[in-house]
């Protein structure tokens, strides 16, 4: 609520970059505190995390639509046209349709969330995202009873995405969550980093962030969200079902078939940065463990 006033600015009021940025990517501890008020100690401890440099976050990326080298997305993702942008919300919702990104932003409350990001490749960062809770977007569309999963799809633009020429994955990139995971207050759609609009290489104009899961679940540049009663296919699971499960919760005790997940390399610490232990659910155990009560996390990796 604290930031609603910002949405009342018209484009004519926007005189400089600072105001423009602030209008869409609200930052501030107060907002973050409010948003997390309902969560446990672990999330509040986010204030203790030191975010990576803007440089690290925007130059070391995985966005295979633009190439598989870590520097490729920063080099090539400028070609992605992010305005106008619409997100189609489909399936088991009361108000299906194409939602303009600008209209979504007017309706949502953007706040800062400082989250750990743990890639399945065993490196990690801390990112100060700006975004809104996915639950708010889904509630806007009206989730129908009977919906059990949420499917997501990235833009498919062969003219703008040079990586699509290579069959690394079965394009477009798709992901999915169980509905309760999607509605969890930690799950956000990120639209900014450090108070600026999210750069293309990080998934402009909006990308999913699920901080307790391996980074590949956090699908970029989302164009379609489908509510369904069936577990949706996911890109990495299709590419390697033995290596990448549907859940993909960060779990130091369940190794990837080709490497251990017990520790991770923090990006930005220099060549000799010490590896650090990987935390259960990436440090968000207290908040999310209830989602998986009674589930065998080794079988459901
Ligand atoms: N989304 C799409 N569409 N394409 C991708 O290749 N890579 C995933 C995820 N989302 C990816 C994607 C992986 S493996 C990770 S670790 C994160 O994005 C990386 O996010 P970052 O580049 O913002 O750090």
TrEMBL record:
List cofactor names only.
Mo-molybdopterin
Q: Where are the transmembrane segments?
A: none
User: PTM details?
Assistant: Predicted to be exported by the Tat system. The position of the signal peptide cleavage has not been experimentally proven.
Main EC class of this protein?
oxidoreductase
Is the keyword Signal assigned to this protein?
Answer: yes
The family database entries (Pfam families) matched by this protein are listed as: Oxidored_molyb (PF00174)
Q: Where is the Oxidoreductase molybdopterin-binding domain positioned along the sequence?
A: 82-236
The reactions it catalyses are:
L-methionyl-[protein] + a quinone + H2O = L-methionyl-(S)-S-oxide-[protein] + a quinol; L-methionyl-[protein] + a quinone + H2O = L-methionyl-(R)-S-oxide-[protein] + a quinol
PANTHER family attached here? PROTEIN-METHIONINE-SULFOXIDE REDUCTASE, PROTEIN-METHIONINE-SULFOXIDE REDUCTASE CATALYTIC SUBUNIT MSRP
Q: Which family is it part of?
A: Belongs to the MsrP family.
The protein's job, in short, is: Part of the MsrPQ system that repairs oxidized periplasmic proteins containing methionine sulfoxide residues (Met-O), using respiratory chain electrons. Thus protects these proteins from oxidative-stress damage caused by reactive species of oxygen and chlorine generated by the host defense mechanisms. MsrPQ is essential for the maintenance of envelope integrity under bleach stress, rescuing a wide series of structurally unrelated periplasmic proteins from methionine oxidation.
Subunit relationships? Heterodimer of a catalytic subunit (MsrP) and a heme-binding subunit (MsrQ).
Mind telling me what this protein is named? Protein-methionine-sulfoxide reductase catalytic subunit MsrP
- Provide the species name: Sulfitobacter dubius
* Classification lineage: Bacteria, Pseudomonadati, Pseudomonadota, Alphaproteobacteria, Rhodobacterales
Gene of origin?
msrP
């Amino acid at each position: 609520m604290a930031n609603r006033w910002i949405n009342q600015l018209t484009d004519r009021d926007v005189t400089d970059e600072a105001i423009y940025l602030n209008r869409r990517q609200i930052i501030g501890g107060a907002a973050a505190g409010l948003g997390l008020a309902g969560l446990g100690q672990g999330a509040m401890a986010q204030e203790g995390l030191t975010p990576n440099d803007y440089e690290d976050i925007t130059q070391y990326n995985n966005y295979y639509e633009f190439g598989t080298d870590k520097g490729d997305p920063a080099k090539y993702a400028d070609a992605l046209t992010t305005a106008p942008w619409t997100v189609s919300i489909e399936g088991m919702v009361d108000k299906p349709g194409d939602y303009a990104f600008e209209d979504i932003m007017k309706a949502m409350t953007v706040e800062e969330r400082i989250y750990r990001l743990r890639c399945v490749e065993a490196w990690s960062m801390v990112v100060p995202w700006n975004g809104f809770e996915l639950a708010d977007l889904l509630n806007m569309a009206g989730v129908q009873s009977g919906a059990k999963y949420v499917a997501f799809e990235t833009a498919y633009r062969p003219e703008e995405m040079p990586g699509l020429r290579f069959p690394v994955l079965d394009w477009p990139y798709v992901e999915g969550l169980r509905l309760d995971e999607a509605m969890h207050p930690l799950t956000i759609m990120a639209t900014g980093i450090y108070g600026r609009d999210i750069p293309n290489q990080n998934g402009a104009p909006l990308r999913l962030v699920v901080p307790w899961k391996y980074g590949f679940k956090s699908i970029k540049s989302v164009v379609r969200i489908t509510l369904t009663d069936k577990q949706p296919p996911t890109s990495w699971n299709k590419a390697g079902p033995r290596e990448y499960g549907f859940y993909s919760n960060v779990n130091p005790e369940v190794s990837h078939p080709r490497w251990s997940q017990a520790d991770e390399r923090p990006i930005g610490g220099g060549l000799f940065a010490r590896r650090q232990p990987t935390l259960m659910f990436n440090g968000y155990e207290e908040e999310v463990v209830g989602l998986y009560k009674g589930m065998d996390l080794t079988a459901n990796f």
